[in-house]
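tool_call: predict_structure(chain=1)
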Amino acid sequence: MNLYAKLLEREAERNPIKVGLIGAGKFGAMYLHQVLRTPGVHLVGIADLSPSRAIENLKRVGWSEERYGAASLADALARGTTFLTEDWQELAKFHGIDVIAECTGNPVAAVEHCLAAFSAGKPIINVTVEADAFCGPILAQKAKKAGVIYSLAYGDQPALACDLVDWAKACGFSVVAAGRGHKWLPKYRESTPETVWDHWGLTAEQAARGGMNSKMFNAFLDGSKPAIESAAIANATGLEAPSQGLAFPPGSVDDIPTLMRPRSEGGILEAKGQVEVVSCLTADGEQIPNDIRKGVWVCFEGDSDYVRNCFEEYNVVTDPSGRYMSSYKKWHLIGLELGISVASIALRREPTGVATTFNADVAATAKKNLRPGDTLDGEGGYTVFGKLTPASASLAKGYLPLGLAHNVKLIKPVAKDSCIRWADVAIDETLPAVRVRREQEAFYSPAIEGV
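tool_result:
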């Protein structure tokens, strides 16, 4: 509750939190805007493979050339400015940085960046939730072994949902379900970068004018991002994944307590304690008023007459029985909120969400009939989408995680809507991201087999 006061103290002491940023794209640029306005924080270095793009974003968000004109990281540390480099390894190793924020959006690269941070004894905020979805649990273990913090990024929906779950549990409530909102219709599964804007509500010209990445936005539309973020929420909170994947029930914020009940009580849940995503569209494609599309929610249970009476006395919205209630945050502000993670880690040594178990996975699933020789193009592309699945099922069936399904060739045919398996592809087993995922599978497989 007092992060800002602590930041002011660091400012007054002239001992700011020293941050390194890897990736100055959209998410990174949003943080770049806010860090100029945050006391007690010094962004020492920015690493980006495209310095020209990084400079363009720096100028866009109001940075003067003097602020990022340091000659080196040491120079930036001494003068209170920022050094721009292409060398992320130099940034990760630099002694004068307290916290690293990984903002590349590239899951394979993000794993390598996390491992380097651990090796350098530095905490890291993994904005690239795609990486957390397929190997977050083992990354969290490695961070703990290294004595550092690994964290989800506040501002993204998974960390915000984790915050709500933590609040509910700390209040003494039993959590029934948690998740995020989304704009969803079943036909969106087949969307490609060519069709995304038709469904999104923009013309291709409007999207181009705004510099919007069609593949990235399509990953949201086709259900991949909701699956990825639901996996991160499940693994960080201990909630379970539905056995058949996300159901995307339509509803408003006031409908959540009614929807998020067990089926035996009129809801949509297989059982209590699951992740789910609520759609802002009816089955006919009509917009639902007071939706939760851009937000997160938690549904919890009044498990005594006393608590249910309190719900009634305070006129809160519940399901018809008065047993289930929800709390929510209607909006998430993405990189504009990343400073909460920076402050929480540096001042409290607390992550804003971290995987504690391996309950959920995201399987790469064929968007169309695929043939040997076809190249998978990852989330939001033409070949695959992500399907949320229980980790036990993914391990037992050998599913290929979506985060590793980019620029990978098939060696076997895969039918449309079928999950792709490791045995169906030719993959580079020497990649750090692949090795880490294999290590995670080896660690959790005995536990899964013993269930």
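agent: Residues 58 and 64 are 8 Å apart (CA to CA). Proceeding to next step.
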